[in-house]
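Q: What would this chain look like folded?
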Amino acid sequence: MTLMKTLAGSAAALALTAGAALADPALIYDLGGKFDKSFNEAAFNGATRWAEETGGEFRDIELQSEAQREQALRRFAEAGFNPIITTGFAIAGQVETVAKDYPDVKFVNVDGFLPEVPENVLMINFQEHQGSYLVGMLAAMASETGTVGFVGGMDIPLIRHFGCGYAQGAQAVNPDIEIIANMTGTTPTAWNDPVKGSELTKAQISQGADVIYAAAGGTGVGVLQTAADEEIYSIGVDSNQNYLHPGSVLTSMLKRVDVAVYDAMMAGEDLETGKYMTLGLAENGVGYAVDENNEALITDEMRAAVEEARDAIIDGSLNVVSYYENDSCPAIDF
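A: My prediction, written as C-alpha cells:
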C-alpha cells in the first residue's frame, strides 16, 4: 500500500513555466492553507518527509480561489511534474477533466469521489468514522457532564461521516450521553473560520458540553483555543494537534494524509492508478494520538477499552455504521 514521493518547496503562486525535473512531484492544497495545523498541513508534512528522506524536490501551491484549481493542475502537468497530488474533495472534478488531457501524467486526489476513476488517477479515501468512533469513546469516558460536542467544518457528507462515527463511539460508552453537533457553514470558507469555531464552542459549553471534537480544518484551531480557555477538553483532527494545548486536547483523531502523500511521492511514476484506495484502522490510515502532551489524560482503563474496540473493528466483530450507507446516522441527527 505504498503511494509516495515528496516536495520541498515553493508555495509561490503559479509561476510554473520554468519547468521541472522529470518525475518531480507536485502538491496542490485545498482551500484553507498549507499551515492549517490539520488536513493540509498533514499533506505538507508527508511531502516534506519524502523530500528529507530522498533528497528529492517537490513543488506545491496554496490556491487562493476555487477558480485556480484547473489552472494549477494544467500548469503543473505542462511543466512535467509527476505525480500531481491534490487534497480535498472539491478538486476531484477538475482532476478528472485534466487527467484525460494528460494521459502520461499520474494524478492523486485525497478525499474526493468520482463515479469512474480515470486510468491515470488514484483516489484515496479514509475510514474516518472508525477513528472517530475511538475518540468518541474517549470523549464519553472523559466527560463529567454527560454532554459532548462536535464542531464540523463545511456541512458535507464527509464531515457528517466523522460526526457519525464519533456519536456511535460516545454512545457505546454511555447510551444516555447527549451529543451536540454544529457545522460551521455551507461554503469552503467554513474550513478557515476560527472565530466561528470559537463561537460554536462557547455555545456548546453553555449547553453543558465538556469535551468537543473539531473536524473543521483551520476552523478547529478556534475550537481548541476556546476549549483551553474555558478549561474543558477538545479533540483535534487529521494531524496530531495535542501539542497545541497540552493538557487540554484530550486526543486527536489521526487521519494519515501525510502517509498517503508520502507513499504517492515515493511510488512516483510507478504509482498504481485507475482505482480507489481506502485506508482505515486495519491499514493504520486512521487512529488516535497519545503522546507526552495528553498521556496523563488517558487512563489505562480508557486505553484498554479503546484498544479492544479497535481490534474488534479490524476483525469485523464491531461494525461502525458509515454515514455514506444511507446518508444518515443511527446515533445523531445533523
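The radius of gyration is 19 Å.
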